[in-house]
Amino acid sequence: TPELREQGKRVAVIIATDGLPTNSLGLGGDSVKRKFVNALRKLDSLPVSVVIRLCSNEKKVVKFYNYLDQLELSIDVLKDIATEAEEVHECNNWLNYALPLHRCREMGFHHRVLDLIDERALNNREVMDLCIILFGKDKFTEASGNSFDWMEFTKELSSALGKEKEQWNPLKQRLMPWIDMNKLNQMHGKPELQFK
The whole model's pTM is what? Predict the structure, then answer.
């Protein structure tokens, strides 16, 4: 563990489940749920990213894991791609939440911006961070600077998009670019989202 921390590395723990926690006898209940939450809390003190891949739409199961997602733990609860895409679209409708991005999250790729995309609108700097994940840091001259020029960034982003293959959009059910530049520019002209 100290070696992982020194090297800035993390271990990904992926839990795929279609039900509520049970003990070794297959029995559930409130005490088993508490033990499960306590086990997650113990992992939270380690350099570990926990992903819970929810394979159920059963209401009580979804409710329990949504509750876990709200705790101040370093876990990400992911549902199927269509549901995740809907959640991302509500906050960041300019982003095509395509399968490669979903798979990165499912496999435990850890970056703060990936935790935020389905929780709130990203600010301009977070948009750039996400674009660096998608297209690479070398595509953006703004990436290493303290200042931020939105117009320059969008030029570089348009160039990067032009070199990428379109991705299947699970909401629109067709191939589309990763980013809808019109929607991105409409949303990020708002002063409260500007990077300072």
Answer: 0.85
Q: What Å distances lie between residue 133 and 69, 76, 101, CA to CA?
A: 23, 18, 9
Q: Name the 3-class secondary structure at 13.
A: strand
pLDDT tens digits, 62-107: 999 988 877 777 788 999 999 999 999 999 999 999 999 999 999 9
Q: 180 and 188 in contact (C-beta within 8 Å)?
A: no
Q: Are 193 and 187 in contact (CB under 8 A)?
A: yes
DSSP 105-143: HHTT---HHHHHTTTS---HHHHHHHHHHHH-GGG-GGG
Give CA angle at 92 (94, 111), nearest 5°.
110
Element of type H or E holding 173: none
Among residues 167, 166, 171, 173, which one has the least CA distance to residue 85? Answer: 171
- Residue with tokens 């350099």, as numbered in its chain: 47
